[in-house]
Amino acid sequence: MDYKDYYQVLGVRKDASPGDIQKAYRKLARKFHPDVNKDAGAESRFKEISEAKEVLTDADKRSKYDRYGSAWSAAHEGGREPRYEDFGGGGFDFRSFQGGQGGPGSGFSSFFDMLFGGAAGQSGAGGFGGRDWSAPGADHEAELSLTLEEAAQGGERELKLGEQGGSARTYRVKIPAGVRSGQRIRLSGRGAKGSGGGADGDLFLRIALRPDPRFELDGDDLVTKVPVAPWEAALGAEVQVPTLGGPLTVKIPPGTSSGRRIRLRGKGFRKEGDLYAELRITVPETLTERERELFAELGKDSSFRPRG
Q: What's the predicted TM-score (pTM) here?
């Protein structure tokens, strides 16, 4: 098994506190996350630093890693002293090795005493040179799906999230007005529980705005397409235009062409934004006999030539 120096991976000292480890991880994660860094190797680097953080922020895993190195996983999962094959060899059981300062039953330490002339693994009370330490809980992330109305208005909302074991937990979340897709809301202390008195992790809610067939979001502005009949465009009319606060009646001036935009100030996604009603002239797919006659008569009598 290849040895990975998790401390070197994160760029921290071996006596780094859990808080320093968490800080180093977050800095590197922001740099190498595959959603941000598209360079070759970024994904594998991100997995490596995530693995290092997982081990070094867990009190039990870190203790075994510092003691057993590359064989820490075997000791952790098997609940035993690692054997020789756990280090890449085969067949030698450390428990069968006796002697040295460790005495009977301490073969692993005695084996390293023989190799390096020191009492290996004697870290004292607390697991690290006699020092008590704590580890913060891991951060969690979940998606919070919102409609445009909910995101624009903000306010409080109840959110139920499933947890391990099939249980669910309800959170009361304050949503800032005008929040966008990709932004995150932090719920402090709602992540994984810390160990040894360490602080609990945070829960981050990643915002995802649901598509709305009525609107296109353009910065703080909204654009909506409003179909109008040919005679409404030619003669002028009053039509209903959808807004996030409900429909509004808008006057269409006579002689309106398809594609013209009518601006409704302050009716955008945020109060600083506007709503643009883009008028689209539509015609019926099928015509009655009378409609056909009227359109034919209009085409005969009109002097309007759209193509010059």
A: 0.55
